[in-house]
Design brief:
Strand content: 5-15%
CATH architecture: 3-Layer(aba) Sandwich
Membrane topology: Peripheral membrane protein
Largest sheet: 5 strands, mixed
InterPro entries: ATP_synth_F1_ATPase_gsu, ATP_synth_F1_gsu, ATP_synth_F1_gsu_CS
CATH superfamily: ATP synthase, F1 complex, gamma subunit
Order of helices and strands: HEHEHEHEEH
CATH topology: Pyruvate Kinase, Chain: A, domain 1
Subunit structure: F-type ATPases have 2 components, CF(1) - the catalytic core - and CF(0) - the membrane proton channel. CF(1) has five subunits: alpha(3), beta(3), gamma(1), delta(1), epsilon(1). CF(0) has three main subunits: a, b and c.
Distance between the termini: 35 Å
Protein name: ATP synthase gamma chain
Keywords: ATP synthesis, Cell membrane, CF(1), Hydrogen ion transport, Ion transport, Membrane, Transport
Radius of gyration: 28 Å
């Protein structure tokens, strides 16, 4: 049985860890509120843009649009969006598992674009081809970062390095629920963008010209939304993980305190017995 000194040292150590996890939970909760507000604000704009693009794609010849024209897929790219840090429960592990499953079941040549240090480090050790990597996105992604990432993805697609690009990220529903998913980014298909005909609208200068100017923005907004969803999911997963760690630390402290009290009581009882035995010996 551990000594009283060892038990007291363990209780002190676990209590210090509990202070850290509680502080991390509060920080994650504050960041989650901001990230959730950004996600909520971005969704209506993204959905309306998808509707407009889908309506336009139903009225033009897609072969004239480089980002939407169908072509033979010789190489597939997966954009894996993970976090730069751990201590977020199974958030990073679930995304990496999904990406690994897609890469293993992919019948065509595939490559990876890693956004986040966790995904990059994992697949770099497994000799997976990584054509681009982005780290240090920060806790609040902005449109400038999304625009640069989207520009590089579009360049890879137009150059023929990748013939299809998919986003792997976690969609945020609540602090307790984040669902990893795969969305196609390029080529943009009419099924990916919701919309119908154009009979009620007049476009200037022409539907094809409007669509050509909207498709790059559509890619930027889709990447931006994925970054926001991923960051909100990461904060929610980290807050939940730190809350569970704090509760587990409290349970361990209670058990160790009970063991400490028992050991102290046993020591007191033993001392009393020794005193009584000594007094009897002197009689």
């Amino acid at each position: 049985m551990p000594s009283m000194r060892d038990l007291k040292r363990r209780i002190r150590s676990i209590r210090n860890t509990q202070h850290i996890t509680r502080a991390m939970k509060m920080v994650a909760a504050a960041k989650l509120r901001k990230a959730q507000a950004q996600v909520t604000a971005a969704r209506p704009y993204t959905e309306k843009l998808e509707e407009v693009v889908g309506r336009l794609m139903g009225s033009v010849d897609l072969m004239s649009q480089p980002l939407a024209a169908p072509r033979e897929v010789k190489k597939v790219g997966y954009v894996l969006i993970t976090g730069d840090r751990g201590l977020a429960g199974g958030y990073n592990a679930n995304l990496i598992r999904l990406a690994e499953e897609r890469l293993q079941t992919e019948t065509r040549p595939a490559a990876l674009v890693a956004v986040g240090r966790k995904g990059r480090d994992y697949f770099r050790r497994r000799q997976v081809e990584i054509v681009r990597s982005f780290t240090d996105i920060g806790d609040e992604p902005d449109i400038t970062q999304a625009r640069e990432l989207a520009r590089q993805l579009v360049d890879l697609y137009l150059a023929g390095t990748l013939d299809e690009i998919n986003l792997i990220y976690s969609r945020f529903y609540s602090a307790l629920r984040q669902v990893p998913r795969v969305d196609r980014l390029l080529p943009i298909a009419a099924d990916d963008a919701r919309g119908g005909g154009v009979e009620d609208y007049i476009y200037e200068p022409s539907p094809a010209a409007v669509l050509q100017s909207l498709l790059p923005r559509y890619c930027e907004i889709k990447v931006y939304r994925a970054l926001l969803e991923a960051k909100a999911s990461e904060h929610g997963a980290r807050m939940t993980a730190m809350d569970n760690a704090t509760e587990n630390a409290a349970e361990m402290i209670d058990k160790l305190t009970l063991s400490f009290n028992r050991a102290r009581q046993a020591a007191i009882t033993r001392e009393i017995v020794e005193v009584v035995a000594g007094a009897d010996a002197l009689k």
